[in-house]
């Protein structure tokens, strides 16, 4: 019944939206003011596509009953990832993890390699892992690298991943492992809920719409995705992903290296240093080796055979050169000795020579190092993935949001995922504006990175439903550009009297108002009481963040520029930057809107503009100001005050009070369901 | 899982017997690491006695290949059973590692 109402509302919203936008494109554009009219209609089209995608999401909202019983005897590793969080916080999470009922092994994966944390972790009976020597000088891949390192060191069939601040409930594993009875299930995601967030959620931390109708809707399309924490994964699926990716990446690199290799060598042979006959003959051998390797591949040989052919031929050429050098050197030394009248012992020398050749011909000391471009090609003609610490990397490393990218690849290779809608862990949200902005920036950048590197729209193996589900999340991060236009609209009329539509006729209102009303009704019904207001505010108010995320991610993917990646601080940042410096574009925009409203009224009084236009645009400006006003509360927010928030009844039903470091512990589970929570959420897909 | 390392004509044969899964994968890694440590360079992994392999086993195979290559040698696989052949195909690993039918053939060209 609920679902039927939702479907009716969704269908009506889409119809009303299309009715409005088609009319806007065909009969309302004020071409005289195209510079604002066209951007506005594009922004509106953007928003309507967002509504259509949302409708599609909730169309299939899954309503799962009780989870299947968890069979006994499964082996489970629990990974708690930490980088620089307070050891107290990590230990509280580790203690709660140890206390989970289903038998498992708890690991703390410390990317900060802190000896004191190791000691403390081992004292409470958990196990400790940090990266080994193989990572020195190789890309670390942040959290994905940390998890990949741990996957190599452990053996459990299932992996529970927890952020350092996510304190699990004792029944977490019992409630989720049963889903894996279906052999095709690779991922079970549970909600992320934060205990340190006051009722009015000034920073928009809770995401009941996302960890609710949106993930449930995606679940219906078999596209519920991995959100980095509070999720259980099947090792077999991850390993398979890592292997498939290893094979395709290696094959691509080797083929490319062989293709450009002969050109690079030929170019090197024309250089002045190649006039030396030793260098010339070495390069000739390399060229021959590359040709033979290419031939092997063409004849249907494996990458392993081809690379081995190339490497072993080059190695023997290098050895020959080194041996020649050493022989000459030994001869010279002997001559010097004779000259100086020192006794000679040729026997010992000869034996040492072989070892010396071995050592000096090895890759790190090879004379080929002098020919960098050639060496780079030869390094790429290998199956060892020398540029990485691990050849097989199960978690995707193409983005700073490894979670979304990994689950997309899992879905593409045919695995299923489950969203289990029950709070089974309580975490900590950022407690100030700068930390919150850093976190949102990272999510947005990561999502855009995935979109640009491995677009779901073209990824093979995904169904169209899955493609649209992933695309929806990416699409929602483009809202910053639309926001700018929505702010510019009222400014254009109030300041200059320019209207982007031909007329504010009954035609306009008759199409616009039904769409708005149906749309709001659909969100309200889907949210089942969760207010979407805070989310609507943030999806427009953070427009500079969203825009910068898009531009930096594009610069990163297309031009290799760094993102300026930062770990979301879990503890409040003391002092620091003035909030005005972080949100000045919004402050400026607000000032402009206020000034424009005043000027707009003056223009109406002196008869320079019409009454209806002024009224509509002032209402629009006020609406924009109300959206932006969320930042005032956010900037003033001084962190969570447990005492002020605690309701005496709620604090007596705690589950995890054992952890004094955590304010979150004072929240009872009863009021923790996102759908029922009074906290607000989002039309935007916030994670 | 049991491993037997034997020196042959021009290569070293590592025979693996049992199930190569996530529990025994680390054992394969250490068996191969030991062989490389003992100076063996051209290794043939005889999988005739391996009746099952999962992706962790394949992962260990890649790790061993990397170790052998970095020591200046190579690791090849031979005598692959039906199930192993299937997982090699599934992950396209057969594009990297050629499965030879007999251990003697593996290094014939080297």
Mean pLDDT value of chain A: 86
Strand order of the largest sheet of chain A: 3-2-1-4-8-6-9
Strand content of chain B: 25-35%
Q: Termini of chain A, distance in Å?
A: 29 Å
CATH superfamily of the largest domain in chain A: Spore Coat Polysaccharide Biosynthesis Protein SpsA, Chain A
Number of helices of chain B: 4
Core attributes:
heterodimer, A: 687 residues, alpha/beta, Spore Coat Polysaccharide Biosynthesis Protein SpsA, Chain A, 3 domains, 7-stranded mixed beta sheet, 3-stranded mixed beta sheet, 10 strands, globular, B: 110 residues, Transcription Regulator spoIIAA, 6-stranded mixed beta sheet, 28% strand
Q: Summed up, what is this model?
A:
The complex is a heterodimer of chains A (687) and B (110). By secondary structure, chain A is of the alpha/beta class.
Mind explaining what this structure looks like?
The complex is a heterodimer of chains A (687) and B (110). Chain A has helices at 2-27, 34-59, 87-98, 115-123, 142-153, 172-176, 210-220, 235-270, 277-298, 303-340, 346-361, 372-380, 402-412, 433-453, 464-476, 479-496, 506-527, 533-541, 543-559, 579-582, 584-605, 611-628, 630-636, 642-645, 648-651, and strands spanning 76-82, 105-110, 127-129, 158-163, 167-168, 185-189, 193-194, 231-234, 416-419, 425-427. Chain A is α/β, with parallel strands linked by helices. Chain A has 3 domains: 2-59 and 466-544 and 573-654, no CATH class; 76-243 and 390-437 and 447-452, Spore Coat Polysaccharide Biosynthesis Protein SpsA, Chain A (Alpha-Beta Complex); 245-380, no CATH class. Chain A has a 7-stranded mixed beta sheet with strand order 3-2-1-4-8-6-9, sandwiched between helices. Chain A has a 3-stranded mixed beta sheet with strand order 5-10-7. In chain A, helix 2 (34-59) packs across helix 7 and helix 2 crosses helix 15 (464-476). Chain A is globular. Chain B is of the alpha/beta class and 110 residues long. Chain B has one domain (2-106): Transcription Regulator spoIIAA. Helix content of chain B is 38%, strand content 28%. Chain B is built from 4 helices and 6 strands. Chain B has helices at 25-37, 55-70, 82-90, 103-106, and strands at 2-7, 12-20, 42-46, 50-53, 74-78, 99-100. In chain B, strands 1, 2, 3, 4, 5 and 6 form a 6-stranded mixed beta sheet that branches. The longest helix of chain B has 16 residues, at 55-70. The radius of gyration of chain B is 12 Å and the shape is globular. Chain B starts with a strand and ends with a helix. The model of chain B has no long low-confidence stretch (mean pLDDT 91). Classes of the chains: A alpha/beta (687), B alpha/beta (110). The A-B interface holds A 152, 155-157, 235-236, 239-240, 242-244, 246-248, 250-251, 301-305, 308, 311-312, 315, 362, 382-385, 391-392 and B 22-23, 25-26, 54-56, 58-59, 62-63, 65-66, 69-70, 72, 74, 76, 90-98, 109-110.
């Amino acid at each position: 019944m609920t679902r039927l109402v939702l479907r009716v509302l969704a269908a009506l919203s889409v119809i009303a939206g299309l009715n409005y936008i088609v009319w806007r494109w065909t009969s309302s554009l004020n071409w005289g003011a195209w510079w604002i009219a066209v951007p506005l209609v594009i922004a509106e089209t953007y928003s309507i596509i967002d509504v259509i995608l949302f409708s599609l999401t909730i169309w299939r909202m899954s309503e799962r009953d009780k989870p299947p019983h968890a069979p006994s005897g499964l082996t489970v590793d629990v990974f708690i990832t930490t980088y620089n969080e307070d050891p107290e916080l990590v230990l509280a999470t580790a203690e709660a993890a140890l206390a989970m009922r289903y038998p498992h092994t708890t690991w703390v994966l410390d990317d900060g390699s802190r000896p004191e944390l190791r000691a403390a972790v081992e004292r409470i009976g958990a196990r400790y892992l940090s990266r080994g020597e193989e990572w020195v000088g190789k890309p670390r891949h942040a959290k994905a690298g940390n998890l990949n390192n741990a996957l190599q060191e452990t053996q459990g069939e299932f992996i529970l991943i927890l952020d350092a601040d996510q304190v699990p409930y004792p029944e977490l594993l019992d409630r989720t492992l049963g889903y894996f009875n279906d052999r095709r299930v690779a991922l079970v995601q549970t909600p992320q809920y934060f205990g340190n967030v006051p009722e009015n959620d000034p920073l928009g931390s809770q995401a009941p719409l996302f960890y609710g109708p949106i993930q449930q809707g995606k679940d219906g399309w078999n596209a519920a995705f991995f959100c980095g924490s509070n999720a259980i994964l099947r090792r077999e699926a991850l390993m398979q992903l890592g292997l498939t990716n290893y094979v395709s990446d290696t094959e691509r690199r080797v083929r490319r290296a062989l293709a450009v290799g002969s050109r690079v060598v030929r170019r090197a042979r024309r250089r002045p240093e190649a006039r030396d006959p030793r260098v010339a003959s070495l390069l000739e051998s390399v060229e021959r080796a590359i040709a033979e390797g290419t031939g092997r591949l063409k004849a249907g040989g494996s990458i392993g055979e081809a690379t081995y052919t190339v490497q072993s031929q080059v190695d023997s050429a290098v050895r020959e050169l080194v041996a020649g050098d050493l022989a000459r050197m030994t001869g010279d030394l002997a001559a010097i000795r004779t000259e100086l009248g020192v006794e000679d012992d040729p026997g010992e020398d000869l034996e040492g020579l072989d070892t010396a050749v071995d050592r000096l011909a090895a890759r790190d000391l090879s004379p080929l190092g002098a020919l960098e471009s050639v060496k780079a090609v030869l390094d790429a003609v290998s199956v060892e993935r020398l540029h990485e610490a691990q050849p097989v990397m199960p978690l995707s490393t193409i983005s700073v949001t490894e979670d979304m990218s990994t689950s997309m690849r899992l879905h593409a290779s045919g695995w299923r995922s489950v969203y289990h809608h029950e709070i089974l862990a309580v975490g900590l949200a950022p407690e100030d504006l700068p930390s919150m902005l850093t976190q949102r920036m990272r999510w947005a950048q990561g999502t855009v990175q995935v979109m640009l590197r491995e677009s779901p729209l073209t990824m093979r193996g995904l169904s169209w439903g899955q493609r649209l589900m992933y695309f929806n999340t990416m699409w929602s991060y483009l809202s910053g550009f639309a926001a700018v236009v929505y702010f510019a609209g009222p400014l254009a009329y109030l300041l200059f009297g320019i209207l982007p539509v031909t007329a504010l006729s009954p035609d306009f209102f008759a199409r616009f108002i039904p769409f708005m009303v149906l749309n709001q009704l659909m969100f309200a019904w889907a949210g089942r009481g969760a207010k979407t207001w805070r989310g609507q505010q943030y999806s427009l108010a953070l427009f500079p963040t969203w825009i910068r995320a898009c531009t930096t991610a594009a610069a990163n993917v297309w031009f290799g520029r760094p993102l300026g990646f930062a770990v979301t601080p879990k503890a409040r940042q003391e002092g620091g930057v003035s909030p005005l410096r972080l949100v000045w574009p919004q402050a400026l925009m607000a000032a402009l809107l206020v000034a424009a409203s005043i000027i707009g009224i003056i223009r109406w009084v002196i008869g320079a503009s019409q009454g209806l236009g002024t009224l509509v645009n002032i209402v629009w400006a006020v609406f924009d100001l109300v959206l932006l006003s969320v930042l005032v509360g956010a900037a003033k927010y001084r962190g969570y005050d447990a005492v002020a928030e605690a309701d005496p009844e709620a604090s007596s039903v705690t589950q995890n009070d054992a952890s004094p470091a955590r304010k979150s512990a004072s929240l009872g589970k009863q009021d923790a369901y996102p759908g029922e929570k009074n906290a607000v959420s989002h039309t935007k897909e916030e994670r | 899982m049991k491993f037997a390392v034997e020196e042959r004509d021009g290569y070293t044969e590592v025979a693996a017997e049992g199930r190569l899964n996530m529990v025994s994968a680390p054992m394969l890694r250490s068996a191969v690491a030991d062989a490389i440590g003992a100076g063996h360079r051209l290794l043939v992994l005889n999988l005739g006695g391996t009746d099952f392999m999962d992706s962790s086993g394949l992962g260990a195979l890649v790790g061993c290949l990397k170790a052998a290559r970095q020591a200046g040698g190579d690791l090849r696989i031979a005598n692959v059973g039906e199930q192993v052949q299937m997982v090699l195909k599934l992950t396209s690993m057969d594009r990297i590692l050629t499965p030879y039918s007999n251990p003697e053939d593996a290094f014939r060209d080297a």
